[in-house]
Amino acid sequence: MTQSDQNNNIDLNQFNQVFFEECAEHLAEMEQILVSLPDEGPDEEQLNAIFRAAHSIKGGAGIFGFQDMTVVTHVLESLLDRMRNHEIPFSTAMVDLFLEAGDVISMQLAGHRDGAFVRQEAIEQISAKLQQVIDAGSLDAPAGSASAAMIPVPEEIAQSGTVASEHSDQRYELVFTPDPDIFRRGIRLENLFAELEELGELTVTAGLPATTDFNSIDPEICVCSWRMTLVTTAGEADIRDIFEFVADLDQLQLRTVSENVREISASDDSKAIATVTPPENTRLMPTGESAADPAGAATGRRAYDKNELAAGAYGRRTSEAESSIRVGVTKVDQLINQVGELVITQLMLAQTATVLDPVLHENLHRSLLQLERNTRDLQQSVMSIRLVPISIVFSRFPRMVRELAAKLGKQVELKTVGDTTELDKGLIEKITDPLTHLVRNCMDHALETPEARIAAGKEPCGTITLRASQIGGRIVIDVIDDGAGLNRAKILAKAAERGIPASDNMSDEEVWQLIFAPGFSTAECVTDISGRGVGMDVVLRNVQSMSGRVNISSEPGNGTRVTISLPLTLAILDGLSVAVGQEKFIIPLNSIVESLQPAPESLKTVNGGNVVHVRGEYIPIIALYELFNMDALVKEPGKGILILIDVEGEKAALLVDALLDEHQVVIKSIETNYRKVEGTAGATILGDGRVALILDVNSLFRMRKQK
Amino acid sequence: MQTGQELIGKNGTGVASEYLTFTLGSEEYGIDILKVQEIRGYDTVTHIANAPEFIKGVINLRGVIVPIVDMRIKFKVGVPSYNEFTVVIIMNVLGRVIGMVVDGVSDVVALSGDQIKPAPEMGAAMDTDYITGLGTLNDQMLILVDIEKLMSSEEMQVMEQVN
With CB atoms counted within 10 Å of each terminal CB, which end of chain A scores lower, N or C? Predict the structure, then answer.
């Protein structure tokens, strides 16, 4: 027994590190939730999250043999469970208590991991305090005569505390694949199962190889295998003892499993045909549940786990983890650069090969063609690594909006536009928090109650629109609501109250900017949704950290639009390359409306400036060669090509020599080694290895106005 | 002839450092070798709109956009011609990569402290502010340039000025 116990520990030691990490994560999560709890108490979700954290720590500690850690977590878990069932009301003092419990668990963790000193009395104290709350039914009730000795610690933990050689509940998974002759040897499996049942809770599932024809089964030959789950305090050796005369070593696979693993799937080569329950216990359960239930029965309160683990929740998580890997962005950048180099090399080869006789060097030419195709494919694949559609962020909002709407008694419809807009992975990660803040703000402050909306002559159902698009050199995300709009007077009053410098003759835009001041909140009451005044300044800070901008436009009664605009430095751009003189420029595709060769009669001049008449509109012509002081082949608008661009309603026609190609280009910063170049949003490297500047249409407009 | 003894110098300040020497017109210049990343031929550059004439443009250096300045135009020495012998010194200056077109690269030399004399006023086409001293090597004068100071200066317009 001791021998096998040691073996067990040696096997588990390599997993201890995993447990320590997970445990630390759970503790951090628990603390984070606790600290952020609103005054009136945690909602269901937060409570569940704290509970899950405590539960996971306890489960892990039990499995890895850190029995002392299960003591505190167990009492904590019990208390949280009672709170979930509304048996014990929440009070703010509990947060401190829970935090203290978390500290004690951290201390124990440090003790196991780094050999740090563990104050035993602290463990006893916190356990007693928690137990006291459980016994009293609430924290505010008169304190009972609680002491560490009085804690009704569950049997298995008490045992582990006193008798070191005893195990706590351990969950084993056994796969028993007997030899075909087992029945002929006179072995009765009922007896075997009955013996196992005596050790603890047992579930048995029989499996039949998929290849077996049911009609050809010989009852005297054993073709089945049995999969058993046993929750017991007994050690591995005890179980093996039972199998001693029944199974050879290789016929029995025995392993301890984490308590979280509730779902047991039938193995590939066999299909579950029946659930065999031991004779003493004639319950019949569906296979999926049968695995979960005995464990629950053994350790007491486990009914709650069913939902979170139902329908393969655990399995899903595993498969997700397997289908993706985390890679540093720098590695991807490096890859993109290297592939870029490869493309250039390939082009050089192709160029060199053009002088060779196509007939004599047919093979070479064919190979080069293939190389070209392969490098293009490779380049495209590599470039797509970094981009993810914004729908990843947007998809989390419908549920949030629904829940918040129900909570606030408001009717809200969420619309998303431009879900497919692709964003750099790094930006996606960073934009989630600010957007969540903004949507919450909309729900809480901006949108009115149905009654108020009807009174204002609006639909009772409010609308929040999330819109993503790529405009010019930037990615723009709008959060639009059709609520009450910002209240200028109220903001100014609040600013005065908070000591934020403001004056009555500020423009609307300046007034709207005030809500980004730290600690600013105009909500009449602080709710758990928002109104704590930490929203907008966090939004601004997060967006600025991505070198983005936040703009607000608002109309009283008609709603508010918050526009987040992010730079493209990380992104890849679809662009059209155009030639002006010797140079090539990239124009972002999404700002281009159309390109045309103007008819002479459509060209006019206004105050000496050229305009082109397109479908009833007079659009100013910007000659790129003029703007950039360079030589061009075409200087007459009538002879070149005009590219109609449209940025936020402002239109212009760019005069270029020729249209070249459509590209997907990596945006590179010129500023890394040089300074900002007016009129450009960066540079890119073209297929021939040359650098082309990417035009920033917005700043072209600015440059034209300055001229 | 250089010997180890000479390199160490007499007054203790003479720890030898190495310089890459290049020519601009008829003058010989030297920059700290540790600032030099590589030397390459002159390639087609992409011109930058509205940039001063001596900033030839930017090139693609293995995926990095690198600005190219022509010192011959900047300091009005030599004839700015571009052929297969035109040399670009790619330097690492203040965390930036910058290319510098020169007439030719000659040598790498080691100079000890006592071989370097302070530069007199009006010594070269370059402002004395950017000259750390004059080196003497085999009766040849070498103008040692503080390339960091030069490249970060306002007149080069290579970097964004802080103010």
Answer: C
